[in-house]
Automatic annotation (TrEMBL):
<feature type="binding site">
    <location>
        <position position="154"/>
    </location>
    <ligand>
        <name>3'-phosphoadenylyl sulfate</name>
    </ligand>
</feature>
<dbReference type="GO" id="GO:0006024">
    <property type="term" value="P:glycosaminoglycan biosynthetic process"/>
</dbReference>
<dbReference type="GO" id="GO:0005796">
    <property type="term" value="C:Golgi lumen"/>
</dbReference>
<feature type="active site" description="For sulfotransferase activity">
    <location>
        <position position="71"/>
    </location>
</feature>
<dbReference type="InterPro" id="IPR027417">
    <property type="entry name" value="P-loop_NTPase"/>
</dbReference>
<comment type="function">
    <text>Sulfotransferase that utilizes 3'-phospho-5'-adenylyl sulfate (PAPS) to catalyze the transfer of a sulfo group to position 3 of glucosamine residues in heparan. Catalyzes the rate limiting step in the biosynthesis of heparan sulfate (HSact). This modification is a crucial step in the biosynthesis of anticoagulant heparan sulfate as it completes the structure of the antithrombin pentasaccharide binding site.</text>
</comment>
<keyword id="KW-0808">Transferase</keyword>
<dbReference type="InterPro" id="IPR000863">
    <property type="entry name" value="Sulfotransferase_dom"/>
</dbReference>
<feature type="binding site">
    <location>
        <position position="262"/>
    </location>
    <ligand>
        <name>3'-phosphoadenylyl sulfate</name>
    </ligand>
</feature>
<feature type="binding site">
    <location>
        <begin position="71"/>
        <end position="75"/>
    </location>
    <ligand>
        <name>3'-phosphoadenylyl sulfate</name>
    </ligand>
</feature>
<keyword id="KW-0333">Golgi apparatus</keyword>
<keyword id="KW-0325">Glycoprotein</keyword>
<keyword id="KW-0732">Signal</keyword>
<feature type="domain" description="Sulfotransferase">
    <location>
        <begin position="63"/>
        <end position="299"/>
    </location>
</feature>
<feature type="binding site">
    <location>
        <position position="162"/>
    </location>
    <ligand>
        <name>3'-phosphoadenylyl sulfate</name>
    </ligand>
</feature>
<feature type="disulfide bond">
    <location>
        <begin position="263"/>
        <end position="272"/>
    </location>
</feature>
<dbReference type="Pfam" id="PF00685">
    <property type="entry name" value="Sulfotransfer_1"/>
</dbReference>
Amino acid sequence: MAFLLVSAFFLAAQTHGAPKEYSQQGEGVVLETLKLEIGLASNETENYSSQVKPPGTNRRIPQSIIIGVRKGGTRALLEMLDIHPEIVVAATEVHFFDWDENYVKGYDWYRNLMPFSYEHQITVEKTPGYFTSSLAPERIHGMNSSIKLLLILRDPTERVISDYTQVYYNRLESHKPVQVIEDIVIRNGALNTKYKAIQRSLYDVHMANWLKFFSLEQIHIVDGDTLIKDPLPELQKVERFLNLPPRIMSTNFYFNQTKGFYCIRSDGRERCLHESKGRPHPVVNSTVLEQLHAYFKDHNQNFYRMVNRSFNWH
Ligand SMILES: *[C@@H]1O[C@H](CO)[C@@H](O)[C@H](O)[C@H]1NC(C)=O
Ligand SMILES: *[C@@H]1O[C@H](CO)[C@@H](O)[C@H](O)[C@H]1NC(C)=O
Ligand SMILES: *[C@@H]1O[C@H](CO)[C@@H](O)[C@H](O)[C@H]1NC(C)=O
Ligand SMILES: *[C@@H]1O[C@H](CO)[C@@H](O)[C@H](O)[C@H]1NC(C)=O
Ligand SMILES: *[C@@H]1O[C@H](CO)[C@@H](O)[C@H](O)[C@H]1NC(C)=O
Ligand SMILES: CC(=O)N[C@H]1CO[C@H](CO)[C@@H](O)[C@@H]1O
């Protein structure tokens, strides 16, 4: 319930705000975003092509893609990058490279889902499922081998809990039975390593697939735990990575004490975000937490070596 309320607020903020350089989010598109966020698949993409094309603009395939990770803070990152006047963002999670039924539709279909942009602007798309897809790296490389990839990660154990929480609320919404997290994570006294949420947190395993096709220099990792606490420095690193002039300012953010997280202020629009979009996480049994930490430890070390950088994960 809390989740739906926050989403509704977020929607209102977007629809009533002044347009950035031109209106890139029709009402149908915003609704589509909400539907995707609450996990309802839909194919109403015709609406995009009926949008008015501002003079001098075109739809372009992305020069940068936020590839994941699911529950890593991809929505927050995209919304924060959208502050930048030289960045335009796709309104929906496109699932072009990870879903066969979309990939077969081809690049023109993909391009038609992108917003109108001026030539100097960078188009960014985010689909969190790409990072854990075994097909996405080769397919993205096939489209543009020099593309710049953004990957936002957070503590893998926290990510599992957030992933569980999202599924939990989705199931509640659709009146399906739910289980406490301990009963899913532990099977016959041992960690259930087949659990998809745990698999998705094996960052080293997934990263290895990307490094087969892309150099480390092409993949910028955003620290999702830091982005939520102190957005500006992480965003400035992204600006440098994308060779963009620094345009995102501390005045674009204000901390909401009640909510406990940052809200975005730009072009007269105010939007509040949260990594869990307002859904409270369960308190997880400490023994189970320790089992998760222990399981991810070696994978994390392996990941740090792979990317030549370490993170403050358990
Ligand atoms: C896609 O949309 C059309 C009409 O809008 C509908 O008939 C069709 O069932 C939809 N397909 C899927 C897979 O949702
Ligand atoms: C490929 O990506 C690079 C880096 O963002 C960009 O400079 C280039 O224009 C892209 N090429 C195409 C065809 O989009
Ligand atoms: C902060 O969040 C609270 C609770 O959602 C809300 O009532 C209040 O209007 C917000 N304040 C600002 C300045 O956004
Ligand atoms: C956590 O679970 C273990 C069994 O897996 C149990 O022995 C322990 O009492 C639980 N701890 C708490 C605080 O509930
Ligand atoms: C690893 O990172 C350090 C700085 O953090 C850098 O000096 C070094 O060249 C990097 N090594 C590789 C193999 O990229
Ligand atoms: C052309 C087209 O598909 N238009 C649709 C866009 O979305 C609105 C709201 O969802 C529909 O009412 C239109 O028919």
